[in-house]
């Protein structure tokens, strides 16, 4: 009798230990397949890294093969599950290849982070030349829409999915020096709302991150010069410039089951910045 009880207890102990081990190694994005556009640097790279650290299989992409190779090598050195593909988001064949190859390699698609953006001109919206306007809307808005359109059927097949558009605080509070860019980022807020309503019934969630000033090449004009940087800091209650990793954590949360009842939201991550910068 004593021996039998000891046997049951030791089996229970082994089972509990194995279960504890499994739960301590399980990650919140295990089994998810993710594409992040423009992810060899800056915010896109930080998001790709965080999604992969949280268990996702991530496809890193950008326009140049050498940048893709360098980013993939860096992430693989950290033991992360990443693959690289060249994708100029403005090119139909590149977008299609990115989605189709991801699906054929990994068996599906769960997460799309549409991060690529351009800003070829500075100044008020009325001084924006037509060709610059077209480029801004092509890359910042139209390709976000087209990528989502191609991704949704694959997510529908899996009965789940998470799409995140990267907008900007300028989409809420236009920057006077970034007239047309600000309008393009406001358009993404609307795309988020509309798409979330259209695909919610398939278990697909659509959200948008609106970063404040984050230290990347994109914001170098605002952060590299001490005087400008100090002026910017005056408008940020948290008293610091954001880091790309700040966006990685938010993106991973939004893609995870922890955010399973969140869709159609435009989330500002700007250290509390409210005013025009
Ligand atoms: N850094 C900031 O302060 C800030 C603030 C608000 C929003 N954002 C947004 O965050 C996103 C990432 O910007 P970032 O700050 O990391 O700067 P970044 O310059 O590192 O990222 C922009 C990326 O888009 C890529 N890109 C441009 N055109 C492309 C195309 N046709 N195909 C593929 N990639 C293309 C660029 O190569 C670049 O890597 C952008 O959408 C940007 O608008 C940045």
UniProtKB/TrEMBL annotation:
Keywords: Oxidoreductase
Pfam families in the record: adh_short_C2 (PF13561)
InterPro entries linked: NAD(P)-bd_dom_sf (IPR036291), Sc_DH/Rdtase_CS (IPR020904), SDR_fam (IPR002347)
One Gene Ontology molecular-function label: carbonyl reductase (NADPH) activity
Highest taxon listed in the record's lineage: Eukaryota
Family statement: Belongs to the short-chain dehydrogenases/reductases (SDR) family.
Protein name in the entry: Carbonyl reductase
């Amino acid at each position: 009798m004593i021996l039998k009880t000891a046997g049951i207890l030791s089996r229970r102990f082994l089972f509990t230990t194995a279960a504890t081990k499994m739960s301590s190694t399980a990650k919140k994005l295990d089994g998810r397949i993710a594409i992040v556009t423009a992810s060899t640097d800056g915010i896109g790279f930080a998001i790709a890294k965080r999604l992969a650290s949280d268990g996702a299989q991530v496809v890193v992409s950008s326009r140049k093969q050498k940048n893709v190779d360098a980013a993939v090598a860096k992430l693989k050195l950290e033991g992360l599950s990443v693959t690289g593909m060249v994708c100029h988001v403005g090119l139909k064949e590149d977008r299609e290849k990115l989605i189709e190859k991801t699906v054929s390699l990994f068996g599906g698609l769960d997460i799309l982070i549409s991060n690529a953006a351009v800003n070829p001109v500075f100044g008020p919206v009325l001084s924006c030349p037509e060709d610059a306007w077209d480029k801004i809307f092509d890359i910042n808005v139209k390709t976000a829409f087209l990528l989502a359109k191609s991704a949704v059927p694959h997510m529908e097949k899996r009965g789940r999915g998470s799409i995140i558009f990267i907008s900007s605080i300028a989409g809420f509070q236009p920057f006077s020096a970034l007239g047309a860019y600000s309008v393009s980022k406001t358009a993404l807020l609307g795309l988020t709302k509309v798409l979330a309503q259209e695909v919610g019934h398939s278990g697909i969630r659509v959200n948008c991150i609106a970063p404040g000033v984050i230290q990347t090449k994109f914001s170098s004009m605002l952060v590299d010069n001490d005087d400008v940087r100090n002026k910017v800091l005056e408008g940020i209650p948290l008293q610091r410039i954001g880091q790309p990793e700040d966006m990685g954590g938010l993106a991973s949360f939004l893609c995870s089951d922890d955010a399973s009842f969140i869709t159609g939201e435009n989330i500002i991550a700007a250290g509390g910045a409210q005013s025009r910068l």
